[in-house]
Amino acid sequence: MAALALVGVVMTGCTNDDNIIDEPQQPAKNVVTLTTTVSLDGGAQTRALTAGGVKTFAVGEQIALVYKNTSDETVKAVSTALTASDIASGGKSATFTFELADPDRTKNVTYIYPAVMAKADGTVNYDALATQNGTLATLSSTLDLATYSAAWNAGSLPAATLENQLAILALTLKNSTGSSDITSTITGLTLSDGTRTYNVNRSAVAGPIYVAIYPTADATITVTATDGTKNYTKTLTGKTYTASNGYPVSWRMTAAYTLAESTVGMIVGTDGKAYAAADKDNLPSGVTAAGMVAYKNGSNGLVIALADEANTMNWSTATGASGAAAHTPVVTGGTWKLPSKAEWNQMFGDDADTDIANYFNLNFYISTAGGTDLQDGYYWSSTETEDGFAFVELDLGSAYWRNDDDPDDDYRVRACLAF
To answer: Which CATH number among 1.10.600.10, 2.70.150.10, 1.25.10.10, 2.60.40.1120 corresponds to the domain 167-256?
Structure first.
């Protein structure tokens, strides 16, 4: 990969204005040889592109030159690919050859290196950053953008110092406690700064994971990763990554599960994902704990809200739109409701529709998830029977089912949602 300082020398042919004929002519082409000399200790450009700290030209590499022709059109010229004979000084210098058609030497030129980072219209191809493979080799050969713009120098291409335009992240990922390195298991990673998104698809190999990004200033960075089974999330705030710098970073990632993958006792966030109760203080930015997985059967189950409704309600209100269904916070993809008698029993851990169940275990999970325990007293269910409206009486760990023939009685309400 080429490095930092670029010196240009131009050799141009001459045209003879006396040789004018009436037949239409193709624009004259000038063959320009550009020689670049690489320096690794110039100014702020100190980032190396290889693990060993060496930044050199390589066989097959090309550089793009963007210029204006005499018709004021923007033209992109790509050099011929470097051969071994083009490279000298251990890769510290190389000779690039271009063909330029009628260049206007009164206008600036721009160098874009490597050439694959230049679009056909001569603009920088930042879109190429959207999909990466996480390897330093690919990043350094195809994505590590360096540019420079200047005026022609007395008819010759200007001497220049290439300026790196991107920041490079070398990512090491760990679990939420930092006790385990998960980098080698990750097969997919997405990083977003709110403006640009970078997707990394890779084989599960040892890290770090290299990502080239557009520079950021005081940005909120969201990261998601997957090992094909578990998903991980991370939100970072106030992050500044400047051009021409590399950042070896180690991030602790919180494992996020779909509800179908969850287990009893997991926290359910407002994003509709499930998280280990131990991660209740490490949820992604903007995600609030809303419930807890209280029952699971295969890929389906029930989530109980982490708190009662603020006020007691009669049965009609509790089962209506302003009752349990209006519980907040809202969970993406979920609908809060008042539990039926059968659903209460499932959450108590008693699938059989018996008269007595135990709710101490349920309270243990709720409190571990950071919620408020069910209280001794009466809670409505949504079940209406021949004998009245079913409610559960909680008393010292036991749950007793009762029927009330007066739906106007006010009892406590705890919402749930099914998945």
So the answer is: 2.60.40.1120
Does the pLDDT value for residue 53 go beyond 50?
no
Spell out the long-range contacts of 227-230 with Cβ–Cβ below 8 A and sequence spacing 24 or more: 227/182, 227/185, 227/186, 227/187, 228/187, 228/188, 228/204, 230/255, 230/256, 230/257, 230/261
Distance CA 31, CA 16 (A): 16
pLDDT bracket for residue 39 (50, 70, 90) = very low
Q: What is the arithmetic mean of pLDDT over 157-169?
A: 83
Q: Does domain 259-418 have CATH number 1.10.1740?
A: no
- Which tokens hold the place of 279? 């991660």
Tell me which residue of 140, 128, 131, 147 sits closest to 170, measured CA to CA.
140
Amino acid at 140: S
CA dihedral 260, 261, 266, 270 (to 10 degrees): -60
pLDDT in tens, 355-366: 556 788 899 999
At residue 90, what are phi and psi to the nearest 5 degrees? 65, 30
Task: Produce one character per residue of 379-405: b if its CB has 16 or more CB atoms within 10 Å, e if not.
Answer: bbbbbeeeeebbbbebeeeebebeebe
State the pTM of this model. 0.73
Coil, strand or helix: which one is 374?
A: coil
**What H or E segment, with its residue span, contains residue 368?**
helix 360-368
Rounded-to-integer distance, Cα 337 and Cα 345, Å: 15
pLDDT of residue 351: 52
Q: Which residues of 21-49 are buried (b: 16+ CB within 10 A; e: fewer)?
A: eeeeeeeeebebebbbebbbeeeebebeb
CA 237 to chain centre: 13
